[in-house]
């Protein structure tokens, strides 16, 4: 007999402490849906649906509509038949199911996280505190300001970072092809390692990124191009063997993601979607299982939010 689960959910909205500026624009509030599954023995599994529609996942409205049309009691079949155009829902429901297995919390030191630096000149003033907190890998957003100004800041940053630091640049698809060449040339022969340039060009310029990945020593990481399982498989089939940024919470079914990463042994860097502790735990468990070449995980973003009150989750269900 198929297991049945009582299902309930709550939409949430949390304001960033400091808005997130990328080439996609300014992100002020992180909205998501927290869901709870309770099995017939009373065991509870928490899940989180955290869409990023401008990354190619469903919208929050589509996820809310899906949750609202579900009955109060669902089965595993309900969960494993969530359509592929709802990847954040696939992740949220399936990881709630897996959470009932009470997977251990993954212990990761700050040295294994990548810390996200603010865009622009502010990065020059932020990295030291994070270094003192134990971070050794830093990600900096580019293609936000004017390229000559960003290259000037980049020069100062690479001259001031300790030589054992690693730096990731994330353009969010905002560079032109000539600008991508300029950045890759600027990454050569530096005192610190530029681990990769993330999504230098828009998704539709895959062939140019494939060419760049073969033309320079600095690696290229696809992110927006591989946001969900279908895109991951497509880029792999088209010959991508450089770095894949995997955002588990919007990629889709965790079991299918696990199968893809294990089958193809991709060079994956796991990345946050600015989720709460619920999706963070599920994502870090996948990262611990599937990361290769001990790449730092892009979850050093908790300084973008106020620390969550311990009992905030329960309070969501206190006032039905
Ligand atoms: O990957 C990381 O290091 C942190 C998360 C991060 O950079 C992002 C999360 C979600 C959307 C984007 O703004 C951004 C990214 O493009 O990777
Ligand atoms: Mg990115």
TrEMBL record:
Please state what the protein is called. Answer: o-succinylbenzoate synthase
Query: What family is this?
Result: Belongs to the mandelate racemase/muconate lactonizing enzyme family. MenC type 1 subfamily.
Gene Ontology terms, MF aspect: magnesium ion binding; O-succinylbenzoate synthase activity
- Indicate yes or no for the key word Magnesium: yes
SUPFAM superfamilies named in the record: Enolase C-terminal domain-like, Enolase N-terminal domain-like
Cross-referenced NCBIfam families = menC_gam_Gplu, PRK02714.1
What does this protein's UniProt record list under function?
Converts 2-succinyl-6-hydroxy-2,4-cyclohexadiene-1-carboxylate (SHCHC) to 2-succinylbenzoate (OSB).
InterPro entries membership: Enolase-like_C_sf, Enolase-like_N, Enolase_C-like, Mandelate_racemase_C, OSB_synthase_MenC1, OSBS_N
Q: Which cofactor does it need?
A: a divalent metal cation
Give me the reactions it catalyses.
(1R,6R)-6-hydroxy-2-succinyl-cyclohexa-2,4-diene-1-carboxylate = 2-succinylbenzoate + H2O
Residue ranges of every copy of the Mandelate racemase/muconate lactonizing enzyme C-terminal domain listed in the record: 120-219
Q: Which organism is it from?
A: Trichormus variabilis (strain ATCC 29413 / PCC 7937)
Active site (record annotation): 141 (proton donor), 247 (proton acceptor)
